[in-house]
Write a structure and sequence with these properties.
Number of strands of chain A: 8
Low-confidence stretches of chain B: none
Helix content of chain A: 10-25%
Pfam families (chain A): Cas_Cas5d
Shape of chain B: globular
Oligomer: heterodimer
Helix content of chain B: 10-25%
Number of domains of chain B: 2
CATH superfamily of the largest domain in chain B: Crispr-associated protein, domain 2
Number of helices of chain A: 4
Mean pLDDT of chain A: 89
Low-confidence stretches of chain A: none
Structural class of chain A: alpha+beta
Distance between the termini of chain A: 21 Å
CATH topology of the largest domain in chain B: Alpha-Beta Plaits
Largest sheet of chain B: 5 strands, antiparallel
Pfam families (chain B): CRISPR_assoc
InterPro entries (chain A): CRISPR-assoc_prot_Cas5, CRISPR-assoc_prot_Cas5_N, CRISPR-assoc_prot_CasD
Radius of gyration of chain B: 18 Å
Keywords (chain A): Antiviral defense
Structural class of chain B: alpha+beta
Protein name (chain A): Type I-E CRISPR-associated protein Cas5/CasD
């Protein structure tokens, strides 16, 4: 389970289909034990890209809550606002940050022994298994394109022999991209602030030896 | 016109799934239960479905083309996986809109190849099934060529399609038994008339559409 919100307001807590930069930088900052009010200036210099190895599916949690800790005088309790929370189930991503090698090595070490618990976008989605794949040499896109495919066998078996994986990364100057608001300027709970980021997407093709030769009737459809 | 393409993976180990798979009539009812009453058809399209069986026995999925996005809850409760994804739906329109003459696709279609034979003295003909795989393929190729497609010939001069599954389905409908001879055809086709092809993809080919026949789907050629 993971959930990567970039535009949630009030009782609808949405998720993007891939990790947000703010979510991943927040995870790195938590691993290093930075407090929410600490500076994250150095993390902002990192270039960010994410490859979708297994898209997963969006699930909705219609959440009801009662404020049992503050009962009223007559014994009744207030109900909290009803909310719709969206999560990604069964999704697998490779997220990469590119930047100063000493900073990357420090972050990689921190992840193996995190100070604060790590979670995938929301507190209710703790990480499981191995989080960091380690530090690699090379350019962000090259590294993402060359990383082995991490999808689960059941997912691989239902795809064709050749699979295209989407890579979404920070736009370079001069490129046009989608604009999202997920640059963390401050994680301070009193005054969270996010800046705008442009995303460009590309795809990389991986071989799928476990794939089946059944035609994929969705392959001709755009964005399916 | 809006259309949706949907894939639903069937959990064949479930008792209700076995019940549905045993009868195209029950399966049709279950597919139509994914739509509000009266909304499984529009003026230009109806709900078409097809049961695809993979090489393994547990490998069964239902493909649906429908004017409304199906709500797979009921189907999932009866024959789905309680874990994982119940199905996959996508907007079919951009694909249909972008069909070009001369483009080449892999296809699959399950049909009920029958011809009405005129009866002396009767107002309508009697439906007679094509018997051999060759006759069934010929029936299909003729229909396909009338509907805006062409089957490119392979190097040996044979059309690039073959019958990959043949079955005679017998099931109860009220107090009578329905017998259907169905053939699944796989191959490669070329679009010659995009408008006719669109109509074939949305309205189906041949009879027994309510029993899972006639849905033609296209996929890009494997690279």
């Amino acid at each position: 389970m993971q959930s990567w919100g970039d535009s949630s307001r009030f009782t609808t807590r949405a998720t993007r289909r891939e990790p947000t930069k703010s979510g991943v930088l927040g995870l790195l900052a938590a691993a290093q034990g930075r407090r929410r009010t600490d500076s994250i200036e150095d993390l902002l210099s990192l270039r960010f890209g994410v490859r979708t190895d297994q898209p997963g599916s969006v699930v909705r949690d219609f959440q009801t809550a009662m404020d049992w800790s503050h009962p009223k005088k007559d014994g009744s309790v207030n109900s909290m606002p009803l909310s719709n929370r969206y999560y990604l189930a069964d999704a697998i991503f490779v997220a990469a940050v590119e930047g100063d090698p000493s900073l990357l090595h420090a972050l990689d070490e921190a992840i193996t022994e995190p100070v604060f618990p790590l979670y995938l976008g929301r507190r209710s989605c703790p990480t499981e298994g191995r989080v960091s794949l380690g530090v690699r040499d090379g350019d962000l896109l090259t590294v993402l394109a060359n990383e082995p495919w991490h999808a689960k066998p059941w997912h691989q078996r239902r795809l064709p022999r050749s699979v295209r994986l989407q890579i979404a990364y920070d736009t370079e100057s001069g490129q046009v991209g989608d604009t999202v608001r997920d640059i963390p300027l401050s994680f301070d709970p009193q005054r969270r602030e996010y800046g705008w980021r442009d995303i460009t997407t590309t795809t990389t093709t991986v071989d799928n030896p476990h794939g089946n030769d059944e035609p994929d009737w969705f392959a001709g459809l755009e964005g399916a | 016109m809006t259309l949706f393409l949907t894939q639903f993976d069937v959990n064949v180990a479930r008792r209700d799934a076995a019940r549905l798979l045993a009868s195209p009539e029950r399966l049709h009812a279950a597919v139509l239960a994914s739509f509000p009453p009266g909304q499984s058809a529009s003026e230009s399209a109806r709900t078409l479905w097809r049961l695809d069986r993979g090489p393994a026995n547990h490998d069964a999925r239902i493909m649906i083309v429908s004017p409304l996005q199906p709500d797979l809850t009921v189907l999932n409760e009866q024959a789905g996986w309680s874990t994982g994804v119940p199905g996959r739906s996508a907007d079919y329109d951009p694909f249909l809109r972008d069909l070009r003459a001369g483009s080449v696709w892999r296809f699959r279609c399950t049909v009920n190849p029958t011809t009405a034979v005129r009866q002396p003295g009767a107002s309508r003909g009697r439906r007679v099934a094509e018997v051999t795989a060759e006759q069934q393929l010929e029936w299909f190729v003729t229909r396909l060529e009338r509907r805006g497609f062409r089957l490119p010939e392979d190097p040996s001069g044979a059309p690039s399609a073959r019958v990959t599954r043949r079955e005679v389905l017998r099931f109860r409908r009220q107090s009578s038994t329905v017998t259907l001879s169905v053939a699944q055809v796989d191959g490669i086709l070329e679009i010659t008339d995009p408008d006719a092809a669109r109509s074939a993809l949305t309205s189906g080919i041949g009879p027994a559409k309510g029993y899972g026949c006639g849905l033609l789907t296209l996929a890009p050629l494997a690279r």
